[in-house]
Amino acid sequence: MRFFTPEWAETVRAAVDAGPPREDKLPEYWSWIDRARTAYTATWALGVRETGLYLVLAWKDGKCVDAAISGDPGSADYVLTAGFATWRELREGADPGQAVMYRRLRLERGNVLAFFRVIYFFVESLAALSRVPAEP
C-alpha cells in the first residue's frame, strides 16, 4: 500500500480508531487516554511539507469517523506538518511524542492549549498511524 493514498488513509482511520496495543504503560495512562477520547470531536490535517498533501482525520465523540487525502487542510481544527524524512522515521518506529516535542511534526494551526490538553491521546493515535505499513 502506498503512503498518503486513499487506501492507506482508510487503513489509518481504522488503526487510529482501534488505537495502539496497550502494553508497556501503566493502566492509569490508558485510563487517561480513554477519558480524553470519550467525547473528543475535532479534525486533524496531517501534512507532508514536500508534497502539500494532507491526511485529514475527522473525530466525532471519540471515534475516528472519516479519513481522506487532500491537497488542502480545509477547515481542520488542527493542522500539523512534517517533512517526508520525519514521516519515514515515524513509519520506521521513531517516537511520535519526540516528533511533536522537538517540533519535527509541527502544529501550524489550532488552539495550542486545547491541542496539548489531549497530547497523549494524539501521540498514541500517531503511534497507531505509524504502524500502518506503507511504501513511499
Furnish the topology, listing elements before pairings:
Blueprint: H1 6-18, H2 27-37, E1 42-48, E2 53-60, E3 63-70, E4 78-82, H3 84-91, H4 96-101, E5 106-109, H5 112-117, H6 119-130
Parallel strand pairs: 1-4
Antiparallel strand pairs: 1-2, 2-3, 4-5
What is the mean pLDDT? 95
Work out the strand percent: 15-25%
At the first level of CATH, the class is Alpha Beta
As for the number of domains, it is 1
**Can you list the strand order of the major beta sheet?**
3-2-1-4-5
Order of secondary-structure elements: HHEEEEHHEHH
Q: How many E strands?
A: 5
Main sheet: strands, sense, barrel: 5 strands, mixed
- Taking all Cα atoms into account, the compactness measure Rg is 14 Å
Figure out the total of helices. 6
Shape: globular
Instruction: Assign a percent range to the helix content.
Output: 40-55%
CATH topology: Nonspecific Lipid-transfer Protein, Chain A
The SS-based structural class is alpha+beta
The CATH architecture name reads: 2-Layer Sandwich
Low-confidence regions: none
- First-to-last CA distance: 9 Å
InterPro entries: SCP2_sterol-bd_dom, SCP2_sterol-bd_dom_sf
Protein name: SCP-2 sterol transfer family protein
Organism: Nonomuraea jiangxiensis
Report on this structure.
The chain has 136 residues and is of the alpha+beta class. It has a single domain, classed as Nonspecific Lipid-transfer Protein, Chain A (2-Layer Sandwich). 41% of the residues lie in helices and 24% in strands. It has a five-stranded mixed β-sheet. Pfam families: SCP2 (PF02036). This is SCP-2 sterol transfer family protein. It comes from Nonomuraea jiangxiensis.
